[in-house]
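Entry 14. Structure prediction run on the chain below.
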Amino acid sequence: PGVRFKWQNPEVSIIEGLWARGDRRLNRLLVTAYNKGCKFDGWSDKFRYRSWEASFLDEGVDIDFFTTRVRHAIEPLPWDHIDTMVSKDYLISEWNKATDGVYTIDCRNGICNQCGACDFETIEPRVFDDCKENRVKNFTQDGHKPKGYKKLKISFSKLDQAKYFGHLEMVKIFIRAIRRSGIPVKYSEGFHPKPLISFEDALPIGLESLNEIFYLSVHDNVKPQTIINGLNIHLPKGLSILNCHFAPKKPSNKPFEPVVYMATSKYGFFDEEKMNHFNMISEFIIARCNRKGKIKNLNLKEMVINLALLAPNQVRMILKSEPRQTVRPFEVLEKVFGLSKVEIKQVAVVKQ
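Output returned:
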């Protein structure tokens, strides 16, 4: 228990060792391997070791020369030209000590080892006394939320090419923008603290939106306009912060509001007869498969509030957003109008 075994393709390890210990003589090998299709070797299904072997033969590269042979201390290394302030003679002496099992005294508490890193003018060892134990004072005994932070409700739009960002990818984009803008945010507790950010809805790939909401906990002295200006500078094209204000302390008890979607076909038209048929009938059963592989029958009419044809190539959908009564607009287009997956990709859907 507590032990996990990680397996890696040994051929991948060979390639990693080659590039870890290789030098500029491998430049031509890299170009040759690229031309043979070695481009996504980090993905196991794209890794082609035979293409690498053919590249080794074409360029006359001996793998063992770079990976397994013993290197002599006087041999020049590919990274010798990088000045780390520590002399190579010192590193060689440390290597000899390590092979002989000789301990090197810590220069912070003993004599200088003459490694070359310190000039004793701007760089020198500095030893600080152990700090006294300090108690965390910003947590109350009754378990209430510590003061010093406030929760903000931030609205943003996701349009154009940004619709191809998946939800997890978009979360990372916002966290990166928050970090770059220098906004002081509150982090979660534990071994891997993360910014306290949460989104109201996880938009599927391909869906645009005029107004989405996420919540962010920031320091008390941060102004909402600072959030808007700071994030918009660092967000990619298609993502834009619209508004920012204080979030209510208590969760809202308002009922779930329906969501309006506008679907516009670029190259085709929506069948009005199929839409009228859907509006007239009282029941429209669809089959949906859950994560466990079980098929469940649902009545689509209970999840669609209104379906209207605004133009031959434009449909307005008003859908419920209640738990267990949620349907995505793409699913409505597929079931009601009988659109194929290829045809659905040609429809631009915008959440209002």
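The chain has a mean pLDDT of 88.
Filed with the rest of this week's runs.
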